[in-house]
Amino acid sequence: MSTVDAEFGAIHGWRPRLRPMRRMAFLAVALLACFGPAAGADEGARVPLEAAIDSIVEANAVGPLAPVCSDADFLRRVSIDLVGAIPPVDRVRAFLADPSPDKRTRLIDELLAAPAHARHFALLLDGMLLERKAPAADMAAAWREFLMTALAADRPLDQVCGDCLASDGADPATRPAAAFFFAREAEPVQMTRSIGRIFFGRDLQCAQCHDHPNNADIHQADFYGLNAFLARTSLFRAEGDPKPFLGEKADGEVEFTSVFTKDGQKGVRPRVPFGATLALEPLPESADQYTTAPAKNVRGVPLHSRRKALARMLADSLEFRRTMANRLWATMNGRGLVHPLDGLDPDNAPTHPDLLVLLTDSLRASGFHLRPLLRGIALSRTYQRSIEPPALSTDALAGLPALIDQLTGLRPQQEGALAPLEAAAKEAEARFAAILAADGAVLGDLPPLIEARNKARGVADAAAAVKKTAEEELAKKVAQADSLASAAAKAGEAAALLADDKVLAGAAAIVAARSAEFAATVEGARGVVAAKTGEYDAAQASLVAARQAYEGVTAKRPTADAITAADQAAIAARSARQEAGFAVARTDLRLGLARDLLRQGDLAATDPAAAAVLRTSIEDRWTALGQMARLRPLSPEQLAFSLLTASGSMQSFHSAAAAKVEKEPPESLKNAAPEAAPAIRAVQVELQTIQQAAGFLTTVAGLYSDPLATDFQTSVNQALWIGNSPDVAGSLKPGGENLAARLLALADDEKIADEAFLTVFSRTPGADEKADVAAALAGRADDRAVAIAELLWAMLSSTEFRFNH
Amino acid sequence: MPDSPAIDPAAAHEIASHKHDRPLVSCVWDPLSRFVLFGSEDSAVHRLGIDGMGVAAFTGAHDSWVRALGFSPDGRCCFSGGYDGRLCQWTLDGEPAPPLRVIQAHDGWLRAIAVSPDGTKLATCGNDKLVKLWTITDGLVAETPTAIGTGHESHVYEVAWKPDGSNLASCDLKGNVKEWSPTGTLVRDVGKAEALWKYDEGFRADIGGARAIAFRADGAQLAVGGITAVTNAFAGVGHPGVSVLEWSDGKLATLLEPKEKQQGVCWGIAWHPQGIWVQVAGGGGGGWLRFFKAGEANELHAVKLPANGRALALSPDKSKVAVALADGHLKIFSLVPKPV
Amino acid sequence: MSSNANPACGSADHVLSRRALLGGMAAAAATGLVRRPALAKSVQGAGKRVLQIFLHGGVSQLETWDPKPGTATGGPFRAIPTSVPGLHISELLPHTALQMHRLGLIRSMTNASDDHGRGQREMFSGRNQPAPLDVPDLGAVVAKACMSDDFPLPGHILIRGSGGGPGNASYLGPRYAGVIMEDAKPPAFTDRPEGLSPEADRRRSGLRSRFNDRFAARRRTADTEAYTFSYGQALDLLDQRKVFDVSLESQRDQERYGKHEFGRHCLMARRLLEHGVSFVQVNHSNYDTHFENFDFHIEQLGEFDQPFATLVADLAARGLLEDTLVCVMSEFGRTPRINAGYGRDHWGKSWSVLLGGAGIQPGAVIGATSADGTEVIDRPVDHGHVFHTILQGVGVDSTADFHIGGSDFTIADPAKQPIREMLA
Q1: Is A803 on the interface with C (CB under 8 A)?
Q2: pTM (whole model) above 0.80
Q3: Does residue B308 contact residue B285 with C-beta atoms inside 8 Å?
């Protein structure tokens, strides 16, 4: 809990680096005031996230709002959402008995601090990042531990995702993150689609061959802009070593042609989808653009990795933050504000654009820590509303005509704002395109100049070497000459002293003559040095000239600031236009809903069937607008862990896991400092618990998983499994401390009903339900265990258990 | 039949080589040593003259590969059998002429032919699981079989007469060896060449069968060749094996295997009166001509061949051996040391 | 239950909507009518079926559909005439030859793959591999497009002795994933657990309904309806469990099909198709004949020929062939060149696929290979075209999209088209 508070505090201490473009909606501005500099100074002015959420939802509500849900519903809902399973029965009892008004807040903080929270979100991230592709067998455990550790330590989401993009598998610390690429064989097109969907909320697939047919916003250039970050990367395996790594080239440009228009582009700049362009990559100075050049059995590691550049650019990408915020909202509410999660486009507006902006900014405000956002969402009335549709009382409808008038008035204003923003966006994009083109033209001229410069450098280096040898040669000659000269002088002196020694005089004369000769060769060496120095100076001069020519041209490039400014301006303008469009969409949504609410009343009288259909569509829209809670199926993992929790197996898995970690502590735990040990142990126990439940999880995931997390789907195979598999049948037989055993031990039907309902449905049974239980057990004295199994099966297979409500 | 000169496997050397444009599948030596016949992956019977008679192709009778070839001991009658199930009789001296007989002898592949030592009977076998006996009268084979031997439960791969002409041996895909009387009645189930068959569970198919067969001159042992120790049927991962069975009780006397366990199949086996089994097989990216001393499991000597050996025939005087190769070569080796 | 597009329904509103369902439910509730949502009507593809015989390992086109007798590559087998004048196939398929007037051939398959895994994925998914996105197998696509939503049996069934794919449903979701019948044994969990009598099962289901009704009073959505509905389906399926019991077929039929594995599997396939299963795959293993190609093809095709021909004849006789598309395929063909071990190796460059029945031109022969079979000389096509053609054959617009949870997924490779001249 303390960590949570600390992190939440981090929001208030935060100083904004937000750009004007992100301040479209009024509320966001208000939010800047809340979370912005003022916040730190004046605590009073702070609007907590939950309040900000509710004010948006409630200000835009059409018709009645569902009341806040019961304690029992809340406990079950928030447990499933934050720790991935229904609450254990003792927690249910305690929570329902607890009279204190702040118990929901305390529960949320307890759950967020629980190791099971890290386990649940690790499994969520696993599903999100690998889309249920299996990581390489030898990596599965490490991958899961990487996620679990990150979540336990509440590592910022941008860093975790960044690792997945940056890791090439070489550094043991981050190797597990490379599973993200390995699971897709690092195939650039597949990586482009997956990264577009997962991190940037767009499915760019259609734009691989042509501009997106039915999404005006997605162009072929968007696909290849992202692809350019990834196209130089490929899977690498050294001979005889099965372990995969990522290799990357330092060159290779991406180009495309439309299969329709035949238009295309060469040398596509790497560009974050709908975000910043990697415009100013370091220019190739010379051949050595690698820390390790690729070769047979050698993995290429470039000095400047485009893949790593993408990782660095994540945090600054609005699309990334918006997508992650939307995913978090979906995790807590069963559906994104934008649905599907990879479907943001002008014709598929968020139901609450300003709420999405709020969450997007809060994510950055919280330093990409998840818990503050989850906490804020869970605390909101919006999250806590009942699943039961509010009644349509007359006074609930009373305000609608006025609202309709207001919205009909607002509509043209909003509409009118679009055209100028559209124009502004086009203009800004044109300006950026122009400056990029200019830069592109310059880059086009460079290759010959670079070659010339490198050639000149080669010549100069050679000349320098030759000059040096000549100088050394000269120095040697000079030294020899000097010693000869001094020898001659000494011999002369000796000859002079012994004038009548002819032999000596002869010798002296010889030495003198030799010394004189040698002086000449010294002159020769000087000549050589002079010549080589001349050549060297010439080479240096032409090198300088080549450099100047090169720099002269590069100087023509637009400045980094100019490019970035134009880029950001274009992004901002496009975004502003989009948000304005979204505002219109929501007005239409609310207007339509208001009209249908009025219509529905009349229809009920004339055509009940039609009214029922309309009522359903109204409820769908209320749910989308957050006026009532969504009834949503449990994910495969939530279902699996809930089944295990209800039947009682989860408890035994968990204690078995704890025992195993105690008995065979992993290295990480053995080497842990005492103060760090508990946290590490907790992570290891959760990992071990997953191991214990692995077989069951695989079965359930195989039957229930929807790889692309699309709409709810149920299959007869699932019903067959629940109905007939030993997995389920076994868990209904009494054994040890399990539920069946506990119920069998109870004599009184009332108690059985209570225990069963509190354990499976996390609530107390109603009178009629107690009657059902009594009836189910009546006359079954001789096969009571069977009767109890039938009762439990009926509960576990019920809609109430299958769905989060 | 002339006495055979002393041979020395170690001295085996190539004395003739002919290249055909298709891979070869069979060969047989004319009892009068005038020529060698071979079949290939086409539908002709090919005649290769020993003394400059050149080659000639006899066509028009078969429309599949000719795997089975046989002569009457006097060399007068020549027979061929093909994967079209046909049995043909030919006149081979002189220019290629149409066949004397074309008989639809088997349903499916006709795999082997054996002429009785006295030249009066012809045995054939094939994929219809039958062994058929045919009478040869006045140098001409009858158009209908005199007897049809039933009892094999899988494709019959090889037939061979006992050297004394008394009875007939046959062996099928699963290595089952049966003895037949000249009148085509089943005398007994001799035994099974266990090593030469298995059902590959992985590929769900049978692998094995007798790809070669020969009696010892005294008829006391029957050698059946094929592939053994198969670990992967569809890649042919196994090595050439020859099960030498005691004719009396069908028990395994010796399993002839190469010293080096190279992947391949034994496609030819013959008995040399000097107490040597001569075998041809594939392996090691080529083929091998191997010599085994009777009773010994590993070879005495091996001669490397440029390609998989697919058939083998000893010359009438047993001094030479002809091998048919997968690269289209028909090669003749002398087993007698070169005169110094 | 799915809210997804049905490409076969051809309606502009691809959302075969849960709203419609719930509307139906509401209406039903209002008018006190049927318990079960009737969606079959809105599915045009419904009633059509696909039978896929997969000759695992790569059958030789030269020993089956595209013989080249008398050539260096032709091998020892002869070509025989068929019930289609002028059309000859290998003598190894005498029974199938008599059914060719009901079937059609593609003799111009050409694709890059000579790897089993890749070839199989390409033939199953109709996409070049590795595909940028995990895509569903043909069986899942057919089930999705052709199976009515209230169909109690699985719509995508794989019968096999060994080998064969997992029946990947990818983004179409678990409802369309392949259900495997190992050696034609019933699928998993179609047998009540020990000690659970049908009465007890009904009893506990009754209790479940009471709980569900009570919860429905709080909130009732298409999802909850779909969920409770699936349990009804499960009970129906258990009632129809005998569908999976091939031994209930007449003794005579069991003899006609043969007692061996493939024969039993073909009879099982007939049984499933008769009961309206949308996609049935029979996997026949194995044809990966790098060695002794001819002996092995005699053995394997000896198993294949009669049961397959019998199945085609029966489907025709029972009027099922009109809306059952039959295809016989492998991951690739085999090298025309015969290797030194009498084997043929992997070959994707020029090989054949057989299609017949629903929507297929009887007796059609598409494309041709050179005299020695080493290359396609007319109308080259690949897995993508075949995938389109099969779907078109059963009335599915293969150029349409699936709309899954708001995203579009092209049903078949947009870069490929159906083989029009193959279609009736």
Answers
A1: yes
A2: no
A3: no
